[in-house]
Amino acid sequence: MRQVSTKPSKAILAFCIIASLFVAGWLGYWLFTHQGHHDAHAQPHMPSQWGIGIVPFVVLLGSIALLPLLKTTEHWWEENLHRFFVAMLCAIGTIGYVAWESGATAIGPMLDHSIMKDFIPFIVLLFSLYVISGGIHLSGDIEASPKVNTTFLAIGALLASFIGTTGASMLLIRPILKTNSQRKYIVHTVVVFIFLVSNIGGTLLPIGDPPLFLGYLRGVPFLWTMNLWPMWATACGILLVVYFIWDNILWRKETYTSHLREELRQDPLRLRGKINFLFIGGIVLAAALIDSNKPLIGTDWHPFLYMREAVMLAFVALSLACTNDRIRKANNFTYAAIIEVAALFSGIFIAMQVPLMILNASGEAITNAMNKPWQFFWATGGLSSFLDNAPTYVVFFELSKSLPEGEMMEVNSGSVPISLLVAISLGAVFLGAMTYIGNGPNFMVKAIAEQEGVEMPSFFGYMFKYSIPVLIPIFILITFIFLS
User: Fold this and answer.
1) Shortest CA distance to 107 belongs to which of 379, 148, 115?
2) 189 near 242, Cβ under 8 Å?
């Protein structure tokens, strides 16, 4: 098992991250609410010298991709504090560019949006599900056969739509790692887990994946995404068949398989920490029902700011209080993986604001160049692979309103073509699996697998060895069947 470095102290690092982000966030919030110079409905404009503005984002992506591969930096990069410093340097570069481009008054709205409205809800949701699922432990003598692994993945792909991709990922990644701990070939299982459980599986309900939830908040009916089940079933079905064949080939190559079968202890399956399923349900309900911009269902009362996040953290406290510490020790539970996600995504959420500004300002050019579902699918998906898929979804959702194509759906501020909404939804959810940073759970699953001793591929290795050759043919097929 890989040893997770604890120097400097994780507590110090966590304090640095929390303190820095809250100072930045509240500074942005104060500037936004007190200066009054920012018009939220102003026409987006193309930043001047935008090539300079995207440099911090490119540097941050390059650091994530390359620093773990270079001999001079691979051990340095293992420290979460070092990751956080790189992320904050890139964030400071972005803040400096925004101040130079639009003046100091633009810093407040940018920080308010990236930290207060995006990052804090994002990381609190991931943290809550991470900690609570860490209190659920599955033990027993499950044989890590292709049939068992495929069943695990199928269950995860179904659960992802009902408890979210984050919830399903955190619930199942440790059991599947434990089940396969004696297998020689594990990486392909974790990678397909990211494809199915952390991304594609969350297509059927708004609580399944953050982009779909943002669509729900903008007026898309809660159950509308169930109409995406043919695409979901096609992608999941093909992936499960491909994985089953793939795992069978590797299973037969493992010469010690029969020896393992003889050594398996005949212990029955045992699930401990079942009360945490109740807390996960509470997290899902809080995410779906509590929104400070809307009255609570059945009342005229608006929840206060961050009430949703406060409720989630309350469930975390209940989980920690009600779960025996031995269960988390049996899961090899530490906070290292969630700290890694917080350290990196704190910078990503700020640095990606300039690319999003460019995308927003290019709206007319984009809609002039494309108006077909397949074009929206690949455009939304391609950007969702490298930008966070939630804001990318919102950008294309808004752009689609200017294209009256076929049957329309009435939403909060206009109407969207249903065919384009299908394409945008599928692109944001499906192609979030293309890179580690396409969706929040991807990086977390990678971190947990590495913590358990699995040698996960690099940023580029994941793309060129796994996601491009496996997923792109499936998405091309989806395009021809459903989006042409």
Assistant:
1) 115
2) no
Upstream peptide bond of 8 is cis (omega within 30 degrees of 0) = yes
3-state SS, residue 271:
strand
Q: What is the pLDDT of residue 79?
A: 85
Bridge partners of residue 139, in order along the sequence:
270
- In sequence order, which residues have a C-beta less than 8 Å from that of residue 10 and are 6 or more positions away? 80, 335, 336, 339
pLDDT digits over 456-465, tens only?
999 899 999 9
Tokens (6 digits) for 417: 């073509």
The pairing of beta strand 408-411 with beta strand 270-272: unpaired
Q: What is the pLDDT of residue 474?
A: 96
Q: Among 22, 17, 24, 23, which residue's Cα sits nearest to residue 111?
A: 24
CB 448 within 8 A of CB 133: no
83 to 4, 14, 331: CA distances (angstroms): 14, 12, 25
- Residue 347: which of 82, 162, 106, 164 has the closest Cα? 82
pLDDT tens digit sequence for 372-416: 999 999 999 998 888 778 778 888 888 888 787 778 888 877 888
For the segment 60-77, the average pLDDT, to the nearest whole number, is: 86
- Pair of tokens at residue 134: 């860490």
Mean pLDDT of 414-433: 93
Predicted pLDDT of residue 3: 45
CA pair distance 451, 333, nearest whole angstrom: 9
Which pair of structure tokens corresponds to residue 17? 């991250």
